[in-house]
Design goal:
single chain; 195 residues; mainly alpha; 2 domains; globular
């Protein structure tokens, strides 16, 4: 998990609330209602799939500067985090984790197809959600975040990785198809125009 260090304090993952507090950005970041977050995640996943389909296969083993994770693992990771989250948060979804490992994929198209299956699973899960159950706490033994908070963090995670994929694709000389501008995302997910 990436860690951002600000003034000696480590912040694990992309946590808008902790980041804005550490950077002294004057905004109250509060997890939105889960039913608002669900379509945001869906839109971000669709965009991630589009970008992954544009990735050239010769870059499967390419790593970002200062990161030891190859693009094959990075792109797979984005979909897997979503899949794991919805499976952990729902007793109605049968786990589809088949032990697939990132290094078994031989093309970005294969990873995108895996992503498509996660998107379809996410859509089925999303249709079953309602306002009465989503704000509640997770089952005993799970972490202490509410479902709304967990989905909010998942949205931020997915959008941050999408933005990284856009930058990587451009570094390869490829213009991302149907790129979603930062201004179309809630500002706390991109930490843009916050003051």
């Amino acid at each position: 998990m990436p860690v951002t260090v600000i003034a000696g304090k480590g912040i694990a993952g992309f946590n808008p609330k902790q980041l804005t507090e550490a950077l002294h950005i004057n905004i109250n970041v509060v997890a939105r209602y889960a039913l608002e977050t669900i379509p945001i995640i869906g839109r971000a996943l669709e965009a991630v799939e589009r970008v992954v389909r544009q990735m050239p296969d010769e870059k499967l083993g390419w790593t970002m500067p200062n990161r030891a994770r190859p693009m094959r693992e990075f792109t797979y990771h984005i979909f897997t985090v979503v899949q794991n989250t919805i499976e952990e948060r729902s007793s109605e979804i049968t786990s589809t984790r088949s032990g697939i490992k990132a290094n078994t994929f031989t093309s970005f198209q294969d990873i995108a197809e895996y992503g498509r299956s996660v998107i379809e699973q996410y859509r089925v899960w999303a249709k079953k959600q309602d306002a009465a159950t989503l704000p509640g706490q997770p089952p005993d033994g799970a972490d202490t975040e509410s479902r709304a908070e967990r989905l909010d963090l998942l949205a931020g995670h997915t959008i941050q990785h999408l933005r990284q994929l856009y930058a990587v694709l451009e570094s390869f000389g490829i213009t991302p198809a149907n790129r979603i501008p930062d201004g179309e995302w809630p500002p706390e997910y991109v930490l843009a125009n916050l003051s």
